[in-house]
Amino acid sequence: SCSNPIRLGLEDGRIQDSQISVKSSASTLLGGKAGRLNLPKTPGVSSGAWRAIHGDNTPWIQVDFLRPVTVTGVITQGRINNDQWVKTFKVKYRDDASMTWKQDSKVFNGNVDRNTPRENTLTTPETHRFFRIYPKSWKNYCSMRLEFVGCYIGCRDGAPLGFANGLIHASQITASSYNAPMTAPQFGRLVVDQQMNWDCWRSAGDDSDPWFQVDFIAKVIVEEVQTQGRENTKTWTKTYKLLYGDDGYDFTEYSENGVPK
User: Fold this and answer.
1) Which residues fall within 8 angstroms of residue 239, CB to CB, at 6 or more apart?
2) Number of H helices, E strands in the chain
């Protein structure tokens, strides 16, 4: 259930540019990253909205939330500096890139001006990884800024969070140091499939206080950590501590019964 929906991160940047894709865009500054609710025209970043290329009669804009989220609605806007907005649209969703898209039965009414946000509620809340907006009609050009509304879901059935299968991108993984390109942080992934070809993360030899970090982008519930040593040499970590935080700067040490573990 999603009893207290929130904005899911397009507007405030929690959703990264790499998570946004579009079928087409009129220019780099009118690409998917410009399609964020309330984003102003910004030199080098945005020309006022996402705008599909002229002649694209079946445009779409998509967000990959990286893991299932519950979406209850969509907020849309037009282009901030031109009379361009989406008048009607459809919403589609799926869980995996190989699956067929499902869609809400409604054709939603969009905007009537440049900047007034309009929120539409889905027929029923939908929990999926990928959500895609298909504009059906528009004013002058197909231009849109948007935000999804809903809930990041809790931990109902524990599942791997994405290191081994590559769902967690290399850009989300950092470390205090590494000693060679093939032992960079992005290779510190659990080996469950030999064809994935990961090696390991290894800190630099003079790093006396090494650390390894993942930014999940959205809040997640972590129940356990699985670790391995390096496959092709007799090296592994014997003990470690776990810290967590919300901003990448202030961290809390994991403890049990008030005692750091």
Assistant:
1) none
2) 0, 15
Give 31's contacts (C-beta < 8 A, 6+ positions apart): 22, 25, 50
pLDDT tens digits for 242-253? 999 988 899 999
Residue identified by tokens 């609605």 is: 73
Contacts 24+ apart (CB under 8 A), 43-48: 47/81, 48/79, 48/80, 48/81, 48/82, 48/143
Q: Which domains, and CATH codes, for the chain?
A: 6-152 (2.60.120.260), 157-260 (2.60.120.260)
Phi, psi of 32 (to 5 degrees): -60, -35
Q: Residue 153: what pLDDT?
A: 79
Burial code (b: 16+ CB inside 10 Å, e: under 16) for 92-108 equals bbbeeeeeeeeebeeeb
DSSP conformational letter for 171: G
Phi, psi torsion values for 241, nearest 5 degrees: -110, 160
